[in-house]
Design brief:
alpha/beta; 295 residues; ParA/MinD_ATPase; binds adenosine-5'-triphosphate; FlhG; P-loop_NTPase; Rossmann fold; 14 helices; globular; eight-stranded mixed sheet; binds magnesium ion; 51% helix; ATP-binding
Amino acid sequence: MSDQAQALRQLVSSKDDLNLQAPVRHSARIITVSSGKGGVGKSNFTLNFALALKSLGQKVLLFDADIGMANIDVLMGVRPKYSLYHLLKGEKDISEIIELGTHSLPFIAGGSGMADLFTLSEADLNYFTTQIEQISEEMDYIIFDTGAGLSKETLKFIVAADECLVVTTPEPTSITDAYALIKVVHSMEKDVSFQLMVNRVIDEGEASQVADKISLVASRFLDMKIPMLGYMSDDAHVMQAVKKQVPFSIAFPGCSAAQDIYRVAMKYVEVPQFQPRETLSGIKGFMHKWLKRTK
Ligand SMILES: Nc1ncnc2c1ncn2[C@@H]1O[C@H](COP(=O)(O)OP(=O)(O)OP(=O)(O)O)[C@@H](O)[C@H]1O
Ligand SMILES: [Mg+2]
């Protein structure tokens, strides 16, 4: 175990040297979609948000990082042949494990491979890092759909990413759990920026009230600004689409949830997200921070 930890530390420090010398290249923005409470609509939001961004001309890779409960493929009614597992085992390269889902949306199925990420040899990790960096140059966004809550694995993804979109519903338990997630992530890594996505609301007013509650507490106790990215209406079409195994924005493009998601995607693309900062961002920052916590 200590050998592996030593190998990882060496890998991280050699990455430091690389980062200092590497020319600045295009790198995708790394986003995680998370929540405190489960079942609040993360996977449906992530999938339809990714499709909406794609329809706006953005290059998006969706990564199912919900360990053990991966279901982006189920929401699209596709059966992926390969997953991260095959990349980690060196059986396939990254372009081979990227599956095309609805409307040719590129995605990587998580599945059992995710757990193996935590026991990789240095050589395997090096291969994985190089492969991920390579794909990152071709993408505008890499979006991770994570599991709910404060599991160690999920937190590692969130703290390594540039931004976390926190999904909550108006339920008090969902709101307090969302705040708990933000608080824990912030205590681990100050660089992650957050935006709120309020799901299953009656109208914009309800969404703003929910977002205000979280923003206010975060501002007072954590000295953080957490804006609301947007909201999604409570809409029976979402469940119908899940049953049909077709993303709701494709199955029912005129429904209110679909209109909401397009509005959110348009806002996301229009407003510049990157604040230049001292620390590493993009995939290099992600791998750097992620590896630092792999011990
Ligand atoms: N805007 C909405 N309107 C109505 N129902 C919704 C909405 N969003 C989600 N749902 C319902 O909630 C269910 C759970 O959604 P989803 O699987 O996206 O949640 P999740 O946060 O990813 O769950 P988990 O924490 O288990 O990963 C959906 O199958 C759907 O029935
Ligand atoms: Mg989910």
